[in-house]
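Friendly challenge for the regulars: who can give me the structure tokens for this chain first? No prize, just bragging rights.
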Amino acid sequence: MTIYRGIYTDIETNAANENIQAVKRLDIIDTAGNPYNIVVTSEVVGPNITFTFTFDTLPANATGTSIGYSSDGGINWLSNTGGVVSPRTLTVPFSAYLLTFTIQTPTGNIYWSNEDTIVPLEMTDDPVRDIVIDNDEDKFTTIRSRQFGINIYSSNTISINTFSIGADDRFKVNYYIDDVLNFTGFLSMGDISQEFMPDPNVITMIAVDGLGFLNDIPLTNFDGDTPQNENAIIDYLLWALSKTGLQLNLRACFNIREVTAQDLNNDATGIGHFYKWCYLDAKTFEDEVGTCINCYDVISYILGEEAFIFQYLGEWRIQRVDEMEHGLLVGTWFQWNYQGNFLGKYNETHEGSIGIDDSYSWMNDDCLMTNDRLVKESRLTYRYELPEEIPCNIDFQRGDAIDDSGSERTFELDCWEKKRENYPTSGLIPATVSIYVQRIYVNDYEKERYVVIPYAAVSSNLILSSNIYVNEKDKFSIGMSRRLSSDVSGSGFYRDNGMQVRLIGDDGTYWTLQGETSAGDTLEWVQSDSDFLTNNKYFWFEGDVDRDMTEPESLYGSTESPPTPVAGYIQLLAHQTHQASWNRDTYIDSVSFTYIPYINGSYQVYTGQQHIVAQTENTRNIRDKEVKISDSPARLYKGALLIADSPNYVLAGLFYNAATEPDGPVYPKPYGEIQAFDVWNQYNRTMVKLDGTVDKSNPAPTMVNKWFMTDPHPNSNNRIFLLLHYEYDTHLCEWTGVFIEVSNSIIYKQYTGNSFKYLTK
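First reply, four minutes later:
Bragging rights claimed.
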């Protein structure tokens, strides 16, 4: 690979005016010679070195990989052959090495080598600026993206055109301070400029960490598919972060825990962490059917009004604001690699002090102190939003084409399973006919769509819906419309079972819903067995055979259910006609489902819930924010916090602050209430904001620190500050920053006075 490298030394001195300069290195890596993003890391273990190769998806015809290594500069080589699954590791007893990585395919081998071509860069007097922007200056700004302003001199071989060809992830930027990685990202291809003058002139570039670009990328999983069903929160975070193109570890100081999870002190595996223990249905992030919102919003949804994310020393960090306080000078951090494998739990202290006798000090007498206004009331609102479709693909819209030509086109049926009742033997078995979706087009516009269940002598074929989760006492209404492929002759009354509703209870019980009939049957839940052989009840079609059977008919009678007897999940089974003598295909035109949740002791239509904390101070300032993830009264609502209760997922219970209760819950509360007080304690009083220029930068400024102001002053004593944003001149070693108070050791936080209400509008 080609690496464009600039090296410079800053002008750093300490308080005693002693030279403590650091060597700073900028690498701009042209990844065009590394299309599979092969990355090699090494770890010294005794006399040996362990190399770890990670790589993106290799060509589909790849049959294997081979690592070649040389300890004598390439005279003699040894190799190790293995599979195509990332990562691959190799331990060698050498201290000096050359490496090659070979991808083996039937059509030839693809080679990669760590022998780089180094192209020197001449840096200007203002070579690199490290910048974090937060225009809102809000403690709960969820994403604090870093960008690096880079200035180099052009030459006869280096110009704007050198870095202007390729995709957004072609030129990777690594920035080192004394050989320690400080930042990694990519050149922003739309932010490169050059003076229109003879060489040498200044080329200006911006490198970004990629977080800001997530606005334009819909969420998909590692395979590029739209997520489905329930997944741990950590999965959504890592899927979103992977779209930056950076394969970075994630470390989180976020220690809210669900009461049934392992306590903090004894959780060595990370299984009890909020991000691993709690699940969300993928429809939480649904944009429209079949697609998700962008990755930036996914991260914001998860961190909203609690924490923020930033890059620190080449990894992603998530910091909960409430845990930046005096009583928690040591934070508990959990770490995962970019694929979600747990790496460890760490106790870390991150502090920075600004004062005349400290490593950092205010300069130029330009530090301005202001007050961040208190609020009279803080509101956090969680809206009850149902997915676009219940159950999945209820309108039969999605499915791969079988025959996508002409006016009559056929498609597969996504989400629904094609089954047949195996009565009187237990269980459902695969359908005996090929069930498909028929679409009728006129002038290339779809005019009709229905599921076709072809005639079968054993008339028990059906389509089975995905699971629909309900709570005890919930209600719903269902509907189904069907017809036959052609009319039948004859007359007289018929009754035909058309739909079955099954309830699989969380308590291990099984139920079917008896539909109304003209014979006097009434709507009621009837307990069955695990194979649904007893009390196998149905909703019915009734009528006279004289009617035109090619016209749609609907289920007989009322279709609003009585309250569900237990919590669990519902399955809808839409059947072909059971009148075998009719000898016709069954067309299912539509299935409908309307959810009627039982909330707060009634079936009133609630639109959401709200946590409010208020005070009597005479101020008109109100903080009113909406959160997307919270405690939910129903599993179906987007953003409902779930936990695994094999084989199902149930609503999470109460939560607690494990940062202050590491041995287990002492004051368990709903997640929304904890969140409400975390916000309230940052805005219930006037807090100090500082804006000024800081001298010295060893170590470099960072969002991870709790900041102290050590020069005695009544408005900074006893306080911890959060760095909201900064601009750091890496050569002059000075930086401007905006700090906001987050904790005061002599003012206790407030945890009483929360009010909760359901919303009807």
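The longest helix spans residues 671-683. Residues 401-596 form a domain with the Jelly Rolls fold (CATH 2.60.120.260). Your move, everyone else.
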